[in-house]
């Protein structure tokens, strides 16, 4: 089944092929880059975990473990973004009036939408049993997750860049 699915629905080959985040670190002040470095590392780990889950050479009996690892890294990354990174960036921009910060709202909405998709994926595949029950849908769900992550990474990069530019003004 998985072989047939990949033939008609190839995975997102353009999806960050284990590259570092799209946000060029040279665009950011050193203090922000240093603060974000661990998060960028987590992002890279998430991308690698996603690619590993897509690997067709993984044995059938090992896929549950690989997907559960992906779920763990996914939830760690999403949580770090919401509860550490965004809060710190917003704290650093509190001196600006709310109308300027309000401009970032569409970016937050895109991030929130991807968070919901990540949580939904995690709820479906976080346990060995649930993963086994949904095994046939996994390639499709991984592709959808990849699209959501790609959107999230782009939105996060925009948010970081926007808030950093505010700080520099």
Written account of the structure:
It is a single chain. Helix content is 74%, strand content 0%. It is an all-alpha fold. The longest helix is centred in the last third of the chain and has 31 residues, at 138-168.
- Compressed to H and E, one letter per element, the order equals HHHHHHH
Count, helices: 7
The dominant shape is elongated
Query: Helical amount among residues, as a percent range?
Result: over 70%
* Strand segment count: 0
Pick out the low-confidence regions.
1-21
pLDDT averaged over residues: 79
Classify the beta-strand content into a percent band: under 5%
Core attributes:
169 residues; mainly alpha; 7 helices; 74% helix; disordered N terminus
């Amino acid at each position: 089944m998985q072989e047939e699915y990949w033939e008609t629905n190839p995975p997102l080959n353009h999806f960050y092929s284990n590259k570092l985040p799209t946000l060029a670190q040279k665009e950011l002040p050193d203090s922000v880059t240093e603060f974000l470095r661990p998060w960028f590392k987590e992002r890279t780990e998430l991308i690698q975990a996603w690619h590993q889950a897509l690997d067709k050479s993984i044995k059938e009996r090992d896929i549950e473990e690989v997907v559960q690892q992906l779920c763990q890294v996914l939830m760690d990354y999403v949580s770090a973004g919401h509860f550490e990174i965004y809060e710190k960036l917003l704290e650093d921009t509190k001196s600006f009036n709310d109308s300027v910060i309000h401009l970032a709202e569409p970016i937050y909405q895109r991030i929130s939408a991807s968070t919901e998709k990540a949580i939904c994926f995690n709820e479906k595949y976080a346990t060995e049993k649930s993963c086994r029950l949904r095994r046939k849908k996994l390639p499709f769900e991984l592709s959808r997750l990849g699209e959501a992550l790609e959107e999230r990474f782009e939105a996060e990069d925009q948010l970081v860049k926007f808030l950093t530019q505010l700080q520099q003004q």
